[in-house]
Batch of 2 targets.
Target 1
Amino acid sequence: MRKAIYAGSFDPVTLGHLDIIERASKLFDTLVVAVLENPNKTSLFTVEERKEHLELVTQHLHNVEVASFRGLLADFAVEIGATVAVRGLRNAVDFASEYQMYLINRKLGKEIETIFLAADEEHLALSSTNAKEVAVFGGNIEFMVPKEIQPFVIQKYGK
Ligand code: PNS
């Protein structure tokens, strides 16, 4: 039984995240999509809202579970019995920071392997930050955020 974890802020979930979730769900028996509860970071959506969004957009994926965690990814992975951490890579900048995170997670001495999935070319410019930047000025976020989530983002900015 192979269980993997795909952790992130998902503030909000983007089409790039969803693509990685869909592809990773085919590689493992169970994929846990885990929202980091980070009290040091100001977010647009609460952790509960982000979990609801993820549940909404992954309804069609029967081996995907949504969770949240505090603290270290490596610790949470052990707690839930996940042996693989999935990360998406868009470019060399991602690679540099993701590689560091991989090394740190490995140093933490836990039995967790990291696999990287290359982003689809359609999603190379997508990030939650970019989606918020466009939405705050009333721009079209159709190509950035799953359609079910767009109204929530637009509503947050009162557009
Ligand atoms: O959405 P993001 O910012 O790409 O997600 C990053 C995340 C949540 C995967 C990463 O920050 C994380 O795992 N945080 C938990 C703390 C941790 O384990 N840090 C160790 C690596 S530096």
Target 2
Amino acid sequence: MINLEISSEFPYPYYCLMKAFFTLVLSLIIGIIHAQKFDDLAKTPPMGWNSWNKFGCDINEKIIREMADAMVSTGLKDAGYDYLVIDDCWQIRRDDNGTIVADPERCPSGMKSLGDYIHSKGLKFGIYSDAGTATCQGRPGSRGYEFQDARTYAAWGVDYLKYDWCNHGKQNSEASYTTMRDALFKAGRPVVFSICEWGTTKPWEWARDIGHLSRSTEDIINCFDCKNYWGGMGVTGIIDLFADLYKYAGPGHWNDADMLEIGNGVLIPAEERLHLSMWAMFASPLMAGNDIRSVSKETVSILTNKEVIAIDQDPLGVAALRWMQYGDLEIWFRPLEGGNYAFCFINRGSQPVTLDQDLKTTVRKYAIDANFMVRDLWKHQEIGTTAENVKGVLLPHDVLMVKLTKK
Ligand code: GLA
């Protein structure tokens, strides 16, 4: 133990300086030991369902319970979609002790009971809050209540927190998300921490040790290539934003391309296949956003394509980069575990495009020779080897996703 008693030979100002210095060093050491996120919770990108895209604020516990049932009965859970996340509007006020209160009209049985139901289905329980004073829909945010909220979530059995960025005033994003990370860690229940800061302050540069995933874009819009005035965008707008983000993703820290719009009635099947394929190429979390109680067989078969999901969940965790662009045709590339590769050909235009592409190449440090089998991950069949060019016609807004496996 260092003795900092005042001695007659040690002038008081020096004593104060020394004390301040040692206090600072001590708090830094304690900070390093205690402040961390829960490791190993998201070695591959989280998958699940989130209420926002389909229901917005119009949620209640009946819908959530039915959705939990449907995640099991449709096979989504077996395909890997195991987080059920209740987005904005479950909360209504704080009580006299500052504890966050669930809206009793929407959730009369309470969040603990709802979480228990979700867990009883073998699913994990996710909720939503906001780093500012209020959520995007004007419900109470967690600003100033981070540690109390984290303890409440732990008591409810929460496994996943999506943490938004509305009404943050002059708050610093990194500091705000760090506070909630520390609060969750201190509360002691392992929670996947989903940063939802929309890419505003480049979270890919600072969020790696704070959250398990961070939203890289404004909100997705249910369309293929539209944009709105405040920054929301469809599938292709998000694809463009991901062109340079691959270097920031990896096991435990994923770039989040936002929830899926598959099965929400606007995208045609080709666009839905392209949407899932590209999210898998990005190693993005896959959060379904449709009403899975009334889902069509076609939507289920797209969402549960195991070969495409396996690309998303590849343990190497290296995200895709845009390798080639020829007009409306783009080719994306992703290295996989075991020296294998995925390629995605997408047609963004309104006319068919003809493919005739040699895949023998070196992309970054990855060299591809003639010794790979090429498998179409939507047709579920081998279509040749890398000794020959990939050939075919890609219809408007359609995708060809292939996996290259060493022979
Ligand atoms: C923001 C988020 C969305 C959703 C809404 C809820 O817009 O980006 O994903 O959570 O808030 O209000």
